[in-house]
Amino acid sequence: MEKLTPQQIADKTFELTEQFNQYVFAAPEILDHIPDKAMLIFLDADDPEFNRANIAMANAAPRPADSPVVYVKMQKRVRTIQQVEWRPEIVASPLAV
C-alpha cells in the first residue's frame, strides 16, 4: 500500500470541503450540529487510508484548546436523473396517430 502524499491529502480535503459547502447551501440546518470554533476533519466513507492520514495531519496541527473537533464523514450519493428523449415520427394525418 502506497502512502498518500501531503498534496494528495490536501487535494482530497479540498474536494470534500467543497462538497460539504455545497451541501450546507442546500441544507444549512446541518450547521446547528457544529459547535462554534470547531475544527472540522473531513472523512471519506470509502477511503480509510485517506481518513487515517487526514486524522493524523489534523492531530498534528495546532489548534486552540477551546476548539472542539468535529468529524464529518462524507459519502457519495449517486443520483440517477432520467433523461427524456423525444423521437419524431412522420404521420399521414393527426387522426392516424
End-to-end distance: 63 Å
CATH C-level class: Alpha Beta
Label the structural class.
alpha+beta
Overall tally of structural domains: 1
Tell me the strand order in the biggest sheet: 1-2
Largest sheet: 2 strands, parallel
User: Can you name the CATH architecture?
Assistant: 3-Layer(aba) Sandwich
Write the H/E string, N to C. Answer: HEHE
Task: Give the number of DSSP strands.
Answer: 2
Low-confidence stretches: none
Envelope shape: elongated
How would you summarize what this structure contains?
The chain is of the alpha+beta class and 97 residues long. Helices cover 35% and strands 12% of the residues. It has two helices and two strands, in the order H-E-H-E.
Could you outline the blueprint of secondary structure elements for this entry?
Elements (H helix, E strand, L loop, with lengths): L5 H21 L12 E6 L3 H13 L8 E6 L23
Parallel strand pairs: 1-2
List keywords for this structure.
alpha+beta, 97 residues, elongated, two-stranded parallel sheet, single chain, Trna Endonuclease, Chain: A, domain 1, 35% helix
What does this structure look like?
- This protein has a single domain (6-74), classed as 3-Layer(aba) Sandwich (Trna Endonuclease, Chain: A, domain 1).
- The protein has a two-stranded parallel ribbon.
- The model has no long low-confidence stretch (mean pLDDT 87).
- With 97 residues, it is of the alpha+beta class.
- Helices cover 35% and strands 12% of the residues.
- β1 (39-44), α2 (48-60) and β2 form a beta-alpha-beta unit.
